[in-house]
């Protein structure tokens, strides 16, 4: 498989899922992947613009905080950009937040919902445990802080546990499938499909932001707001903006170089 077969692979696609690139190794941040994965993403998005410009694009390749802006710029240059059809897949952050919350609150994970907003790396990942359902009084402020940190560091935890043999693969495959399935439901007209995703947004002053998104026949039907935040979450929101802004700008700069 090479670039010469991209056309055949992409033509007529309704959804394109991009997990391409190298995974993290111990000591690497998602940002260290930028130099390798940014070029791969740029090439693939150039081909998507040519062969299936109307497809929904699910970006998994890290760093998502930069690769989504790269894709947007490539599509803009090609004249095919539709902000409703470009998604950074942050579902794994949601899967982790739900799992950790369920364990601590002692409720079945299948019943749990936790919105995760911001971005898809380190402190830019902000789980909104104050909005978690089912609600519980069993968690102290310290518990919430610990769950937040564990959600933010979940990827690093796996990288270190695998000791050089890769990053989160099976959980990422599951999360990617959950989000792709939600997109398919939206395309098929199933009502009220809501997932968190990193998309073009006016929820904050940043051009891209992860929050709950309603999915429909054209991709994003509505970008939903953040709702009521706790003081801890408000602080987390302010703290993540600088890093997220820099990552977005890095992607835009690369795409236009």
TrEMBL record:
- What EC class is this? oxidoreductase
Which Gene Ontology BP annotations are present?
malate metabolic process; tricarboxylic acid cycle
Q: Which PANTHER family match?
A: MALATE AND LACTATE DEHYDROGENASE (PTHR11540), MALATE DEHYDROGENASE (PTHR11540:SF54)
* Taxonomy of the source species: Eukaryota, Viridiplantae, Streptophyta, Embryophyta, Tracheophyta
* Family the entry assigns: Belongs to the LDH/MDH superfamily. MDH type 1 family.
- Annotated residues that bind substrate are located at 24, 30, 62, 96
How does this protein assemble? Homodimer.
Protein name as catalogued: Malate dehydrogenase
Residues involved in NAD(+) binding: 37, 60-62, 172
Recorded hits in InterPro entries, A to Z, give:
L-lactate/malate_DH, Lactate/malate_DH_C, Lactate/malate_DH_N, Lactate_DH/Glyco_Ohase_4_C, Malate_DH_AS, Malate_DH_type1, NAD(P)-bd_dom_sf
Active-site residues are 120 (proton acceptor)
């Amino acid at each position: 498989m090479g670039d010469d077969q991209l056309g055949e692979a992409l033509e007529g696609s309704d959804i394109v899922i991009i997990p391409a690139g190298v995974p993290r190794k111990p000591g690497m941040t998602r940002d260290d992947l930028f130099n390798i994965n940014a070029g791969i993403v740029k090439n693939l998005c150039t081909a998507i613009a040519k062969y299936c410009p109307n497809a929904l694009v699910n970006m998994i390749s890290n760093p998502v905080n930069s690769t989504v802006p790269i894709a947007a710029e490539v599509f803009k240059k090609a004249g095919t950009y539709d902000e409703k059809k470009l998604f950074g897949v942050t579902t794994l952050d949601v899967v982790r937040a739900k799992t950790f919350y369920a364990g601590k609150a002692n409720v079945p994970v299948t019943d749990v919902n936790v919105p995760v907003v911001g971005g898809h790396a380190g402190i830019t990942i902000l789980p909104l445990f104050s909005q978690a359902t089912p609600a519980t009084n069993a968690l102290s402020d310290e518990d919430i802080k610990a769950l937040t940190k564990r959600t933010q560091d979940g990827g690093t935890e796996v990288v270190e546990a695998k000791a050089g043999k890769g990053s989160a693969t099976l959980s990422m495959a599951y999360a990617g499938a959950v989000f792709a399935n939600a997109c398919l439901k939206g395309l098929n007209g199933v009502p009220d499909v809501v997932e968190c995703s990193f998309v073009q947004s006016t929820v904050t002053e940043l051009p891209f932001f992860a929050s709950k998104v309603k999915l429909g026949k054209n991709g994003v039907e509505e970008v939903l707001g953040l709702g009521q935040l706790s003081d801890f979450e408000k602080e987390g929101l302010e703290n993540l903006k600088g890093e997220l802004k820099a990552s977005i700008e890095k992607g835009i700069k690369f795409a236009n170089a």
